[in-house]
Amino acid sequence: MNFLDAVLSLFRSDTEDFYYVKIERNEKCYCNSGKKYKSCHYPKHYQSSKRAVRKISESTGEETFQVLSVKKIRKNHELFKPSVIQS
Ligand SMILES: [Zn+2]
């Protein structure tokens, strides 16, 4: 493996080590208010064309919350998995 391949493989594994799951409107809001997303942050996000998502690490399962623009979500749709939580 040459140097460039090594760098590229590092970059690839780094970027493909996670996936996103959208937070459904009926799920609890990510901000720990205890309210559902649709009656908490969702209206605000909707107005600014943003959505809250979970970013989940493939290797550790560690979850972080992110607010992404709808545009970015569409652009990265292949990184999204369907939510397993039944609403
Ligand atoms: Zn909230």
Automatic annotation (TrEMBL):
- Write down the Pfam families for this protein, in alphabetical order: SEC-C (PF02810)
Specify the superkingdom. Answer: Bacteria
**What organism does this protein naturally occur in?**
Ancylomarina salipaludis
Q: What is this protein called?
A: SEC-C domain-containing protein
Organism lineage? Bacteria, Pseudomonadati, Bacteroidota, Bacteroidia, Marinilabiliales
